[in-house]
Design goal:
The chain is mainly beta. It has a single domain, classed as Barwin-like endoglucanases, CATH 2.40.40. The chain is 10% helix and 47% strand. The model has no long low-confidence stretch (mean pLDDT 97).
Length: 116
């Protein structure tokens, strides 16, 4: 049996930009992507601490070391610059393997979005 489990989580990262005129997605600093084992175009869930919004989108690679977290397209209407968010990714795996699997958990500095 296959089940879906949390693969990685970026906890309380700050939105630095919101670009309504982009086609969609979330742009994330490549350092944060690497730390959370995220790849470009991977599906993620983004949860907003300010208003409870929750969206499903995909990742675009941001400039390494920039601290960028940009909500693009319609998500820019639900997330504002300065909002703290959680970015989650999931993976399908065998039930028995899932019992011992440990997700990548990333806790960046909420002021800079840099790794601590």
């Amino acid at each position: 049996m296959q089940i879906q489990v949390v693969k990685s989580k970026i906890h309380r990262v700050r939105v630095t930009e919101a670009d309504l005129n982009y086609i969609g997605s979330i742009t994330i600093d490549e350092n944060l992507m690497d730390a959370a084992s995220l790849i470009e175009n991977e599906q993620v869930h983004v949860l907003n601490y300010r208003n409870g919004e929750r969206i499903i989108t995909y990742v675009i690679k941001g400039i390494r070391g920039s601290g960028i977290v940009c909500m693009n397209g319609p998500a820019a209407l639900k997330f504002a610059v300065g909002d703290n968010v959680i970015v989650l990714s999931y993976a399908d795996m065998d039930f028995e393997k899932a019992k011992s699997f440990k997700p990548k958990l990333v806790f960046p500095d909420t002021n800079t979005n840099k790794l601590k």
